[in-house]
Amino acid sequence: MIGKILTVAIVLTGIVVAASVYYLQVYHFYDEIDLPASQIALVPQGGDSAEPIPADGIQAIDANSSPIRFRACFDTTLSVDEARARFERVDAPPLNAPGWFDCFDADAIGAALADGQGDTFLAQKNIAYGADRVVAILPDGRGFVWHQLNNCGEKAYDGTVIGEECPPLEQFQ
Prior knowledge:
Layout (H helix, E strand, L loop, with lengths): L1 H27 L1 E4 L7 E2 L8 E2 L3 E8 L7 E5 L4 H7 L19 H9 L4 E10 L2 E7 L4 E8 L1 H8 L15
Antiparallel strand pairs: 1-4, 2-3, 4-5, 5-8, 6-7, 7-8
């Protein structure tokens, strides 16, 4: 009888822990934020500082638990061809967003980018240590923003020695 009680207790504890971890990862750490249109900006080719682009209907989420949890969706009048001609392009596939943030479908965005329908552009280098802000623009006027690990971030998180080309970590604390 004691074995059955212990088994039930272990199983129930496992279910509670699993449900808690799921809730924390998908809901708890994220906050919907107000992102001003001026924060939707792209770095011009050969430039250093980003220029704001037209953006309306901005929806954004962020979390303090990781620099790459930021996601945003917006509408723009800037065409993909205009953006390609003026702004610095980067190769950065979209990262997944929580399912409840339904304007950001990483699979659909990634498929559109792979088909050449849209493109990704640098919005800000080192928005947080080792993470760059990336903007994707699609031909239908939808835009998406996320943070992507850059070379310094990948090195910092996989344990590789960080070289002199990376900014000092103290600069971000």
